[in-house]
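Re: beginner question about structure tokens

> Can someone show what the tokenized structure looks like for a real chain? I only ever see the sequence side.

Sure, here's an example I had lying around. Input first:
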Amino acid sequence: MGDNFTGADQAARQTPAAGGWQNKKASANNESTGSASKSEQPMSNLHPIQVSVALCTHNGARFLREQVRSICLQTVPPAEIVLSDDASSDGSVEVVRATVAECAAESGRAIPLRVFENAVALRVVKNFEQAIRACSHELIALSDQDDVWMPDRLARMVPLFEQDPKLLLLHTDARLVDAQRKDLGQSLFYALEVTPAEIERVHAGAAFDVFLRRNLVTGATAIFRRSLVDAAVPLPVEWVHDEWLAIVASAIGRVDLLQDALIEYRQHESNQIGARRDSFMGKVRKALASRGTIHAERGAKADLLLAKLLELGGRVDPVAIDKVRGKIEHQRFRAALPASRIARCLPILREAMTGRYDKFGRGFRGVVRDLFESV
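And the corresponding structure tokens:
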């Protein structure tokens, strides 16, 4: 079936507003690929909560067919796919269109496809913001261009939102594979060194405290309610989109996780963000490396978070706001440590006694790093 081109199709190729979002409702291509009748559309009668997939691409044609097939052929399919392509030059959009049509022909079930094509790249964070803003259904599943979903991913995750109206964001583990989908023998949670204590705290409703220490949410594994978008946008470019969505969600609602690997998370040379567990020597090198501006940058990110939580007003527990202020103080302390390692010892000891290394970082690991890293 051919594309439904309108005058708005040209608008979708215009340069987006610098650093931000334009109202592109009229500039997306609304496509329904395949010949299925309305009675063969996604099974909303079985799952009243429907899912939009926010698929972001940039020169991802190499892997896109496998990913799109895994989305379209879910046992419980999504209600729409919103594709936001970031100035690809390799035919990524054409691959997605062709694959959606291919799946519709196989299954007899057409999944609507909406396409945004950026003439000038927005880059990762703003490209995802464009996609999630355009999603129209209750749940939004983020999708990278190079992974593969397990066939029952949506069937496993959607019912949990139906059972718990307070659940705002849910993420899972993933199986790490190489470019050819060969199992690397590690899970994503293993690579991130996710601990049983962190998992239990998330289950217990303390995800915000966990995320103040470090992010555990990989966007490719996450599904969240559409209501989170209104609270979280605009997405600050200083944050990775998934960690921002996760911590905002944890401040205003319930975040939970599944330890099941429901996607194959492909690791290859073109990954913008990958996953790898550090070796012991890797950790030593990090401890001795220059801190550069990392603590100042983390402090600036916490400043942005504080501003957002204050903006959300009564939706945020004042205790959470106080915790972010403590995080800011801790990062400023670390950024201001003197160059002399000897001169750092006493201030670091005092800071460790406040408990803030444990509350806002990796505990003893952070202490060791501050003692030994160069400036």
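Each token stands for a local structural state, so reading them left to right follows the chain. Confidence is low (pLDDT under 50) at residues 1-27, 32-45.
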